[in-house]
Amino acid sequence: MSNPTLGSNEALINSSADCQxxxxxxxxxxxxxxxxxxxxxxxxxxxxxxxxxxxxxSPGTNLSVSYNxxxxxxxxxxxxxxxxxxxxxxxEGPSKIxxxxxxxFTTVTSSRLNEFHFTYSRENRPRSATPSGVPADTGMGFVPxxxxxxxxxxxxxxxxxxxxxxxxxNFSIVTGRxxxxxxxxxxxxxxxxxxxxxxxxxxxxxxVTGFLRYASPAAPGGFGPFTVGCSNGSYVTAPASCPxxxxxxxxxxxxxxxxxxxxxxxxxxxxxxxxxxxxxALFIQDRWQAGHGVTxxxxxxxxxxxxxxxxxxxxTAYAAFLNDPRFPSDGTLxxxxxxxxxxxxxxxxxxxxxxxxxxxxxxxxxxxxNMLSQxxxxxxxxxxxxxxxxxxxxxxxxxxxxWPNLLAPSAVPPGTFPLFxxxxxxxxxxxxxxxxxxxxxxxxxxxxxxxVYADFTYARGVHxxxxxxxxxxxxAAAAVQPPTRDTTTYVGANPFEPQLSDVFVTNSRGRSxxxxxxxxxxxxxxxxxxxxxxxxxxKDEDDDSNERDPFTDRSFNFYDLSLDYGPxxxxxxxxxxxxxxxxxxxxxxxxxxxxxxxAQPITTSPRVLAGNDRGRNWDRKDNxxxxxxxxxxxxxRVGTGYEIIPSVEMFNTFNNANNVNPLTTPALFNFDGFLxxxxxxxxxxxxxxKVTF
Length: 693
What we know:
By secondary structure, the protein is mainly beta. Helices cover about 5% and strands about 50% of the residues. It contains 5 helices and 38 strands. Helix 1 runs antiparallel to helix 2 (about 15-30) and helix 1 (about 5-15) runs antiparallel to helix 3.
């Protein structure tokens, strides 16, 4: 059918994914004048410049200064998904990055060396949504999931300027068998931006027909923004009730979010921020040649991160809850002063013959908190910015947005806040992620240029960052849960309603572990070739893996977060890598690479089957990877000091599908800023010519 419509073909649309696609394309063409079926071209425009100068200031002092400039403008770089319309995309740039590096090396004496480093960078990184007649980011359906409109994190555009200033100094002393290095660092990072995220709203619907009904003019029988879905497949228009014997399904509107000023108007001031991080570090380390083939490294590092300031918490939308023991925040972003990191390692050349080498090291490492996570808690406080949430349940007591528009602004008296204001905060006990790492390895020479090796690593992470919504889980998990489900059913009123809706908390309740072993063989360059091959078997586990999506609470049971612990989204049990380089007759040079890995995990629906919780990431995606890549080149000398080097490169030689499926949550609820689905990169051939002089 070329033009299925809701009035005549609703059952057919429900039963056919292709009919859903055609119906949506027709709807957007007729209602918004928007052709969503156009091909999406991914263009890359990048120009880079590098200049460098070296100056021997004195016999013992060398100054090196470099300047990098990069310009890029890349269209349609946001989404590459077959079921997303042409409007669901954006442009990165035009970005202009300026970077200045300076290094001053001073040989004080034959055993004293000072290294001073300075960096200044300025990155102007605007982004914008693809121009369209669909302002609201709109998604519908689970299998498949369709998406149309301006991406919520780009609409209509973002202005961003990042400046970094770094000073670092190291001083080395060589004395006897000891090489001691000590130093410090200061890093200042400033981010100024106007982030208009959710300024045009994001709508998520349970189905295509549910969306088409919601987007229709309001009418009895389940049309318009007060449409309610019923368990028998029918629809009603609130306040009408579902037919006897049926209940509401929670749809068709599963999720609506908009960000705006307190009066409900989306102004630039609401998304404006100017935040800075100050990071300090001090360290001292020693390399001790202990003798008998033993070298010992040991040291100590201290880091600190000073977070951005927030407004006075007593003036925010959540001020009334600051003394409530259930509220997890004091309204600030805790500074991190206690990042103490001892580290040690040892290398033993057994027998001092260079045939067998044992290595072991251990240490503690801290990660920094990123500005994407910080800025939400700086701006989304009800004073500068608030979030308005709706779903179909709100039809019983609140106004509803008319697609594709925003909620109507609602005026409130000065000093007060609208009901159901969404906020973001940091946990008062927040700590930066900490990793404890142990590594042991052995390498054995089999021939003058061939060695085999084995390497074992264990890493344990604590205080990992998680994003949890403290105001959508009632007061407890229900005593009786459905036997088949993807998440937990809760009972009781949400603790901070109706004053607040979402209370997204950046906290440090996550944990992880990694155990991996690498077995390999390598041959150093000799007889005109070299190669290395290794196999990695590993198990990577954590309870969230959420690094790019601060808008989604991924907990299975908010009151028992241990149920989230399982294979990491990144978990790859088996990897194989082979690399080789050879100089062939007649001056031909060849590089070849083979890479392969097994699939990554995913939580497929339902997680709980017949009352049995199969756990987070219990299943595997269809995204195993294998690729053979190579490059062949041959230099030709021209005159004195010139070379012309033509080359041919081939990637994915056997054209493996290498399916791309990064989703860990249903596509409908994906809030990532970049997403690819479908098959991976096809076989590609590249021809190039390089001229050296």
